[in-house]
Amino acid sequence: MRCGAERLLAHVVHALGSANAHHGYMFANARATRIKMLVHDGFGMWCAARRLNAGRFAWPRDIDTAKPIALTQAQFDALVVGLPWQRLPEMSTITRL
Question: In the 8-state DSSP scheme, what is residue 14?
Fold first, then answer.
């Protein structure tokens, strides 16, 4: 998590070949307590960081780094606040127990 925007961009270009305009690229530390997001807004790059004081981000552990994951707006919003974004469809309804 010591990387700045330039070094994160180098990681993206190395892994994916290029950084696309109007895309965001997210990184997490090994404990999933911090995330950084690198965004190419069409004019330049900016970097944002978030840290959880308690708990962990629901970060996928077994992903192929060469294959990006696309998130919906709801999934992204849940990920950034530390909610289990993979379970959003089953969390959207209330069932009788």
Answer: H
Runs of H (alpha helix) within 55-94? 73-81, 88-91
| Beta carbons within 10 angstroms of residue 35's beta carbon | 20
Range of the domain at 12: 5-91
**pLDDT tens digits along 22-79:** 998 989 888 888 999 999 888 888 999 999 888 888 877 666 655 677 888 888 888 8
Spatial CA neighbour of 16 closest among 70, 79, 76, 85: 70
Q: Token pair for residue 69?
A: 């994951």
Assess if residue 96 is contained within a domain: no
